[in-house]
Amino acid sequence: MKTKVTRKEARKHLEQFHLAVELV
């Protein structure tokens, strides 16, 4: 797994994950 992920990218992924969870 690549651990080199910028905070902005990680933040975007987290927000998308939250949106997906809320949609369910």
Percent in strands:
under 5%
Mean pLDDT: 83
Elements, N to C (H/E): H
Main pleated sheet: none
Q: Structural class, please?
A: mainly alpha
- List the quaternary state of the chains: single chain
Word description of this protein:
This protein has 1 helix and no strands. It has 24 residues and is mostly helical. The mean pLDDT is 83.
What's the SSE blueprint?
Elements: H1 7-23
Summarize the structure.
The chain has one helix spanning 7-23. It is mostly helical and 24 residues long.
Task: Please tag this protein with its features.
24 residues; 71% helix; mainly alpha; single chain
